[in-house]
Amino acid sequence: MGWNIHNEAFFRRSNFVNRLKLRGSYGSTGSLNIPAYSAQSRYNFGVGTSYYSELGAALISLGNEFLSWQNVYKANAGIDAVLWKERLDLRFDVYRENTKNALTQLTLAPSAGFSSFSENLGEIQNTGVEFSARFKILENRQQGLLWSVNVNGFSNKNILKKISNKLKASNDKLDGDNEDQVVPNMLLKEGEAINTIYAVRSLGVDPATGSEVFLTKDGIKTYAWNAADKVATGISQPKWNGNFGTNLLLLKGFEMNLIFNYQAGGQLYNQTLINRVESVDPRFNVDRRAYDLGWSGPGDVSPYTRIRPGAPATKLTSRFVQDDNNLVLTSASFGYNFYRSRVLKRLGFRSLQLTAITNDLFRLSSIEIERGTDNPFARTYSLSIRAGF
Q1: CB 82 within 8 A of CB 67
Q2: What is the DSSP string of 372-387?
Q3: First to last CA, the chain
Q4: Whole-prediction pTM value?
Q5: Alpha-carbon Rg of the chain, whole angstroms?
Q6: What are the pLDDT digits (tens) for 285-326?
């Protein structure tokens, strides 16, 4: 449903407001992103062998006969505006989305013979805002001059309103039984976000002993790590995420396009500091921070515990939950169009354009992390030539 206010008789037209529209919608949809036959246990008959003239069957997928359809109910309201002789284009949306009988994959123990099976998670609520804006700083169509800037972003918050009894039982087991936990695991708790990071709260490294000091759920200081003391210490999803950039077209045919990506407000469990600095064997090659920053004796103030051969692995702790804010130049392109060249026409070309493109030209981040050799930070360069005859 929409209302074009600028078409109403009472709306006084002006050069400032060229278009103004209010929008709203509400609806319910299902989901097709579900593995086929998730509700059914399936078997495979071994036609190559038989036993007393009978074929044997092997279970190949574990079904859930109580599985039900996922339904999504979404309400949305927004506004579109074109202002100042179409130089400024604005769009803003707010929404609330409730997902009932949300589907998820439950992980099973290896002894079960299957890695996971489908289960109805419960009810999830998503609320958020989205916006976009584009502004033409300079525009002269006759001379082929255009310079514009744009920005967009979104913020989404999800909350588990209700979870099934099976998931509650699974969470209770994961919450208290893993006494050797060194990395975060997924826990689903009512009233919290799906991507919440759960860890035992840390007060840092004791200068006197070099051991980490923890807080229990009741706020009591202790040197003993306990999985039952895990609490919400951050959310891996950023509060704000989006892009901004600029596009420039000059009179002589030069073109430039820059696209930046930003994210802010989320947290990350910095496993790099554990793997490369704290939980290392100093008899081998290690990050120099292991020597410069590790606790070495009474009275030494350090963000890391004592580093020594055979030291126990660092347990899951809020000491390594850090704010994850970053800015990346995701794409940069530079080009030149020879469409006004007389030499070009003499050579028989109708048009000729050269474009150079690169990605991830620079990255600013509040966290120093590694992605390893399996998924390294990659930067590519390309040069394209487009000709018309």
Answers
A1: no
A2: TTTS-----EEEEEEE
A3: 48
A4: 0.82
A5: 29
A6: 787 777 777 888 899 999 998 887 777 889 999 999 999 999
